[in-house]
Amino acid sequence: MEEEIAVLAKIPVTIPFTSISFNIVITEIIVTSWVIMALLILWAFLATRKMKAVPTGLQNSAEVVVELINNFVKGIMGEKHYKAFAPYIGTLGLYLLFSNILGATFFAKPPTRTFAVPVALAIMTIVIVLGAGIRYKGLKGWVKGLFAPTPIMFPFNLLEYAIKPLSLCMRLFGNIFGAYILMEMLVHFPIAPSFASLYFDLFDGGLQAFVFCLLTTLYISEAIEVEE
After folding, report:
1. Residue 216's pLDDT is what?
2. How distant, in Å, are the alpha carbons of 29, 39, 49, 177 from that of 95?
3. 75 is in which domain, residue-wise?
């Protein structure tokens, strides 16, 4: 069962000229996600503020990361289409990487340990998959693909758009939340947490970020039927 998430603040909001009111709830997960996004934006800004022909420091680190992401996406999607999707997949991968390994810092808990974050990321991915399929094939071609290779496959092809995001979020949530619970159990042992953290927070956290991005890239590539 998922743990209870700490609520840091509740901001009451009333829609003008109506009787509709609700609370904007600020939780620990939201604040941690904001911090991760702020750090990534700050790193990107500082790395590209004064770019040089011969990169050094932060610019060099940014160029290495961008090159790795581009090569990864290009290897799956090909030269023709990778530029359109590499920014999303790279941003997704960096956010997931930092989110998943937060447990090793002892300053915050990984946002991906709560079900809402993997669900939101999976929904974003499947929306992009749908949009990419329609954009590259056209609405008529996308609908036609639902009946391929035979019309009897229509319900199964349609069901894939529910199964894909479900598998993405369940895999990510299950692994990260399970590792988090195990680390909470091991905290009472003097030596075990340090060694276990190297695997569950660093290796497994990085692996789950990679798997999520890999499947996202494969799903998009399949949706647009890349042919080189």
Report:
1. 94
2. 13, 10, 21, 17
3. 59-224
74-77 LR contacts (CB < 8 Å, sep 24+): 76/214, 76/217, 76/218, 76/221, 77/217, 77/220, 77/221, 77/226
Amino acid at 160: E
Closest CA to 115 of 155, 158, 171, 73: 171
Q: Is residue 181 part of a domain?
A: yes
Q: DSSP string covering 5-41, please? A: PPEEEEEEEE-TTSS-EEEEEEEHHHHHHHHHHHHHH
pLDDT in tens, 138-182: 888 888 888 888 888 888 888 988 899 999 998 888 888 777 777
Please confirm whether the linkage preceding 55 is cis (ω < 30° from 0): no
**Exposure on the CB side of residue 126, measured as CA atoms within 13 A:** 17
Which of 6, 43, 211, 190 lies closest to 122 in space, CA to CA? Answer: 211
- State the total domains in the chain: 1
Residue entry with tokens 């050094």: 56
Distance CA 133, CA 130 (A): 5
Q: In angstroms, rounded to a whole number, what is the distance separating the alpha carbons of residues 91 and 71?
A: 15
Q: What are phi and psi of 110, to 5 degrees?
A: -65, 130
